[in-house]
Fold:
Amino acid sequence: MSEMIKTNDSFSSNRRTFIKKTTGAVTVTSALAGVTIPRVHASMDDFTKVALVGAGGRGTGAASNALSVPEDIARTKLVSMADVSTAKMENSFRALKRRGKDRVDVPEDRRYIGFDGYAKAMDNLDAGDVVIFTTPCAFRWVHYKKAIERGLNVFMEKPVCPDGITAKRMLALNEEAKKKNLKVGVGLMCRHSRARGELFNRIKDGELGDINLLRAYRLHGPVASCFSLPPKENESELLYQIRRFHSFIWASGGSFSDYFIHNIDECCWMKDDWPVKAQGAGGRHYREAPSGQDYVDQNLDSYTVEYTFKDGAKLYMHGRTMNGCHGEFASYAHGSKGLGIISQAGHAPAPCKIFKGQSFKDPVAWAYPGRESNPYQDEWNDLMTAIRDNKPFNECESGVQASVVTAMGRFASHTGQEVTYDQVLNHDHDLCPDAEKLTMESDAPLKTNPDGKYPVPAPGIIKDREYLQITGNNA
Ligand SMILES: NC(=O)c1ccc[n+]([C@@H]2O[C@H](COP(=O)([O-])OP(=O)(O)OC[C@H]3O[C@@H](n4cnc5c(N)ncnc54)[C@H](O)[C@@H]3O)[C@@H](O)[C@H]2O)c1
Structure:
């Protein structure tokens, strides 16, 4: 089969129909063989179908971004949704319907509940359409496998894997995605921030000199599900751990991976490299909830990690989820010629700046003019532009690298050991061996130990893995 026919196969059904109707498949094949085919918009009826897998907060946001891509880039329509929670699904559907109106065409029989819903949602798409993965990251590889089989373009949220085993699985799957020329966006949206992009270009042009120190801070009170009380009476333990996914390392990489990955990734982007090793410290100062009950999650509430790049440069990541303490949510790069603000006060807008010395009091050499656009929307516009123009766009590998680097800092803090990138990538601790086989009736991947508590890190005592499961899969 010619390359041309393969490329045509990745068009959405309406695009295929249009090309056949207007030019004839044979003419297109012979006229365009061997050239890059721009994904032009055929007619006003032409649209890219979108499926949403994981209809929670970010899923609703990502689907909304998908529907808000400017029409000269792509016309999108949400056609199917999947979740394991009926309540989350219905909330998301209602919110999207309000915003998207006729662009949300998801009747009840295309809203799938259950662990197998992802496959059914994707079966409503044609090759070349787009699927969104916004479940906790434990399921990313399972869903990615199906998308590749179906020839679908993908938007997947960060982190893309919680551990080395799934990192390698994602990298292997991604080789198949690349062969099929699939476009893959990862929700590290700061990489699409226009202000950070200009700062990066200036760093590459030497305006900061050699980058020898990066500092990142994510210091705020408890957010999302980082601390958890035990499941409700009669609640499925599996669905409880999924609902409280920031609390459980198998599901999300814990609060460390879920929260800190953005700052770690944007620092590595500015350094234009990934660290080779890390050492870290962390502790859990408070376990008692305001109700007097003890929290049972696996997270520490404070972390400090020193990452080392191969040229000896350092990245320090400071993270804390504790009320009443100094708050900061920012990343900075120090070079031999000055200091750069990568981000300050959250993800967006990024007030990127370069100072002529190492202090914020030094004269400003450059500042991003004005207020930048929303990087969550920009990442979608960039993905859909790449699909339209059939240009290379695959962020999976860098998403895996960012996830492994983040897991490296987490592992170092949880074990109290210095650890290398390769050790984390090749570690044998499979945090969720049966992700592909889970059903609504399955046991939870993490069990309580004989003391009735979920296993937690014990730095300096448990040195070769982040926690010890005495019963269950990892015993
Ligand atoms: N890029 C960002 O700034 C950003 C912001 C928020 C969240 N996120 C990421 O998005 C993901 C989801 O986070 P969220 O805040 O939306 O959480 P959420 O709990 O609101 O949404 C997750 C949804 O996935 C569903 N789900 C879980 N497992 C499933 C499965 N196997 N099949 C189908 N549905 C399943 C849950 O029921 C839930 O509705 C996480 O990976 C998170 O890190 C990214």
Q: What stands out?
A: The first helix runs from residue 3 to 9. Confidence is low (pLDDT under 50) at residues 1-44. The radius of gyration is 23 Å.
